[in-house]
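REQUEST FORM: STRUCTURE PREDICTION
Request ID: SP-0412
Submitted by: Lab K.M.
Chain count: 1
Length (residues): 402
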Amino acid sequence: KQWYQRRVRALFAPRDPLPYLPPPQPKHSNENCSLTGVGSYTHIFEDPTDTPVPIKCPSRLERKEAKRVEREEEQRQLIEQELRNWDPHNDANASGDAFKTVFVSRINYDTREDKLQREFEEFGYIRKIHMVRDVRTGKPRGYAFIEYETEKGMRAAYKYGDGKKIDGRRVVVDIERGRTVKNWKPRRFGGGLGGSRIGAPEFNITHSGRVDPRQYQEKVDRAKRARDRALNNDNEKEERSRSRERSRDRSERRRSTERERSYKDDDRRDDRRRRDDRDRDRDDDRDRKRDRDRGDRDDDRRRGDRDDRKRERRDDDRDRDRKRDRRDRDDRRDRDRDRDRDRSDRDRDRDRDRDRYAEKEGDREKDDLKEKRDDEDKSKDVDDGKMKLEEPHIAEETAVAS
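STATUS: Completed
RESULT:
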């Protein structure tokens, strides 16, 4: 235990004090140093006239555009150099008479030379067919030169062979322009004919056959007119739709007003009918009470006659109500039919369903009213039978009293 206490006291014992050290002395003293401006150092500065122009680093887009322009310039120079060296009259592959040769393009890559010869032999005797192939791969390029024996065959092929379908593709037949047209440039040098690469899709020529360069502007004008016409049609359609919606809204408001008026008339007619029935029932109850107080046989006979008359009158009233309901139903049906003539098919079907439902509801109410009246007639007949059974006892009591 004493050992444990010593160890605990040792944990809380204070540490030794820190030794004293004198404050350090500064290495450099500022007592003899004075602060001055930069005026004495301006002769060391650089002369502004000798300052070099700052170099501006191009951005990524500028570098990309510069590369594109450089490539286009290189391609243009290469095309110009090849065009200067190009001479169709000294071409070894372009042998034969140029005025008897036709140029056939858009040929299917699977079409063979014998198939091409069979297709164009109908226009005349063929002297030679040269199908252009790739120098490196040997695959066909899709066009060929056909030389005929006579110019007549060449003219027939030029006139009737254009647009001919061979192996699923319609070919284009033209004259050989390299040796017959002055200053002619092939397609690879920026020349040639065709309208598939004019510009936007609406300006390109998509049909098969030869294309007249004058058709380019006609197609552009035609596309512009079609676009303007479509825009005008869209505006007219939008205006017609707005007018149709306004007229639909007016007709809908008019129909809703007529419908509400018709509903109010029906409700007013039903209220009048219910009020008449209620008054009639009250009068019948009053008459029954008055007849029940009378014990005279003549009164009973008169009451029976009156009941008969009431029953007949009730039957007449019921028939008159039925006729009136039938007339009202016919009038409502005629009015609804006249109103349905101006409605659309959708509104007509909806109103017809509503009318059918209303007729069913009216028939159901009539059936309920008929059952109610039948129950009243039955209860009335039961009361009459009871009174007839009580009449002998009343007569006997009268005789005894007399």
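NOTES: The chain has a mean pLDDT of 78.
Reviewed by: T.R.
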